[in-house]
Amino acid sequence: MRRELPMLITLFTGTVIILDFFFPSIMKGITDVLQRWAIIIFAFAIMLGILNLFLIHLRKLLEPSTKPLDRGASALLIISLITAVLLGLIYTNEPDIVEAYTLKTEIVGGLVLPYIARITKDFNPFSVWIFNATYTPLQATMFSMLAFFIASAAYRAFRARSFEAFLLLVAAVLVMLGRVPLGIYLLGKLFPWIPADDIANWIMMIPNTAGQRAILIGAGFGAVAVSLKILLGIERSHLGKAE
Amino acid sequence: MKALLNTLRKYLLVLEPMFKVLKQVNRHTVFLVLAILLVISLLLSKNKAILEFTERATKMDTYERRAFQYVQDLPPGSVVLLSADYGPSTRPEAEPIAAAFIKHCFKRDIKVVTMGLWPDGAQLISTVIEKIAIEYGKKKNVDWVHLGYSPGGVVVIKQMFIDFKKVFPRTADGISTYDIPILKDIRTAKDFALIFSVSAGDPGVKTYVKIANGEYGQVVIGGVTAVSAPEIYPYLHTGQLMGLWAGLKGAATYEFAIKEPSVAAELMFPQSVIHITIVLFIITGNLVMLYDKYVKKL
Questions:
Q1: What is the arrangement of strands in the sheet containing A97-108, beginning at the earlier edge strand?
Q2: Residues 195 to 224 of A: which have CB under 8 A from any B CB?
Q3: Where are the alpha helices (DSSP H) in chain B?
Q4: ipTM above 0.90?
Q5: Mean pLDDT in chain B?
Q6: What share of chain A is helix, strand, coil (3-state, %, to 5)?
Q7: Contact indicator for B104, B96 with CB cutoff of 8 Å
Q8: Distance CA B116, CA B139 (A)
Q9: For B75-222, where are the alpha helices, taking DSSP H only?
Q10: Residue ranges of the domains in chain B?
Q11: Pairing of β B144-149 and β B243-246
């Protein structure tokens, strides 16, 4: 029953959603409820994900075979997770009354003493600080490094070893130059007969679109096939391993 | 023929020391060159002459013009929905597009409702709209409102077209959306004059095109990162997407179009320099390969 029940739920919800696409007026009531449930399930899935992450790292932290560096990383993750959750919970979000707490300092007898002050504000300063001062720069740094890796990889690996690779290389160079003002200017000076920006736009709008459309149609057929397999219970990997 | 090849070989072999050096260029050298050029170009990016040059070389393409004109033709007082579906990693590209759109709307007295299908995007856009609203003297909950994040992607969009206020019962500040003047006439997402999705992946522009436009006929305009632009183009051809602002170039073009050159316009110069440097690296790498492959065998 552990596998049959989820399969039945999948079959029922999948069929209802498909029927809704063809007969919206008939199915409206039931799909409306199902979709509202889906939003709630998504929210719980986030919580489940956090709990799963917490348990995995807790296990890694407690296991004697874990390497010291990995143990440190897991401990850091757990501390960060708990801190962020606790600081987020300080924030009360009642309708019309939005309260928050902030860290302030006061000089008492020549000593600077910190204290938590209750303020009426529309944001939680702790969560905002975590987001702006740690999460944002960390993600931005990771992505910014890509430019350096791409440049290095382009120099060492982007070679015209075949005719197809040569075509790809020429297209890439023209798009890269045609999308920046200095590139358009330089190409215009070196090769006045090449309108770099128009060529870049043409590459994006014609050959690129043709290729993307082919991929989309192929992926669409693939999605239909996989969806049917899931609905009919042929594909069961989403249910986990059989016992 | 043999004599000609010998002469050619003699001349090309003169270049051997240079190719030897180029072959020894490792990734650290590439990183260093890039870093130096990036710092210099960033320092020069605010230069007035460079900005004027960028403006002259930046022109709107067909789809950018279509997007711009659609907003331009909206009657004052219209309410538009801005969905911020990006994160801090794509912020430098996506945020200037969102900022330019908000400025464009505020200039034309169009009311803006912001939200996010990504939790990060919802957080980021709240700061952006708050700052621009102060700049333009726009009132919160009257001229603009931020609704925050709702999990669910496709389902959220579908539900927004059934009952918008059930998906967002409260604003990000915790105020009931039934009490917000800007949302007075909004029953479903179809009541918005336009949906503008600034996205860096999924859920994002593609999801809005499929559900908002495909199922409900709502007008959708997109703002995407340069890397995700290629997969959006098919929807522009079919008219499912009204217009598209792609990458930093799209953001800069939008800023110049609304006559508010800002961060994207400034960053076009460093981007130009880095693009040209990468192209030069690619050409050099290929010359080294060709030299090894053919000249040495001559």
A1: A92-94, A97-108, A111-120
A2: 197, 201, 204-205, 208-209, 212-213, 215-216
A3: 2-13, 16-23, 27-44, 48-57, 62-72, 91-107, 119-136, 154-160, 164-167, 205-208, 233-237, 247-257, 263-293
A4: no
A5: 91
A6: 75, 10, 15
A7: no
A8: 21
A9: 91-107, 119-136, 154-160, 164-167, 205-208
A10: 2-43+272-297, 62-261
A11: unpaired
Amino acid A154: pLDDT: 86
What per-residue confidence (pLDDT) applies to A98?
Answer: 46
Q: Does A93 touch chain B (CB under 8 A)?
A: yes
CATH T-level topology, domain B62-261: Rossmann fold (3.40.50)
Chain A: give the shortest CA distance to residue B121, in Å.
Answer: 11
**Any idea which residue has 């059930």 for tokens?**
B166
* CA atoms of B220 and B194, how far apart (whole Å): 6
Q: How far apart are CA B258 and CA B261, in angstroms?
A: 8
Amino acid A101: pLDDT: 54
* E strand or H helix that includes residue A111: strand A111-120
How many residues are there in chain A? 243
Q: What is the three-class DSSP state of B32? A: helix
- Separation in Å, CA of A189 to nearest CA in chain B: 13
CB B81 within 8 A of CB B102: no
pLDDT tens digits for chain A (243 residues)? 778 888 999 999 999 988 988 888 888 788 888 888 888 888 889 889 999 999 999 999 999 898 999 999 999 999 999 988 888 777 655 444 444 555 555 666 666 666 665 544 455 677 778 888 888 888 888 888 888 898 888 888 888 889 999 999 999 998 888 889 888 888 888 878 777 778 888 898 899 999 999 999 999 999 999 999 999 888 888 777 665
CB contact under 8 A, A209 and B282: no
Chain B hits for A201, Cβ within 8 Å: 61
Preceding peptide of B203 cis, ω within 30°: yes
Q: Which two tokens stand for residue B216?
A: 């409900």
DSSP per position, A143-204: HHHHHHHHHHHHHHH----SHHHHHHHHHHHHHHHHTSHHHHHHHHHH-TT--HHHHHHHHH
pLDDT tens-digit profile of A141-154? 888 888 889 888 88
Name beta bridge partners: B80.
B112, B194
Q: Which helix (H) or strand (E) holds B80?
A: strand B79-85
* Inter-chain residue contact B285 with A32, CB threshold 8 Å: no
Q: Are B279 and A176 within 8 A, CB to CB?
A: yes
Whether A179 contacts chain B with CB within 8 A: yes
Test the A interface: residue of B22, B30, B60, B240 with most A CBs within 10 Å: B30
Please, what is the average pLDDT of chain A? 83
On whether the CB atoms of residues B279 and A177 are closer than 8 A, the answer is yes
Task: Name the residue of chain B whose CA is nearest to A24's CA.
Answer: B215
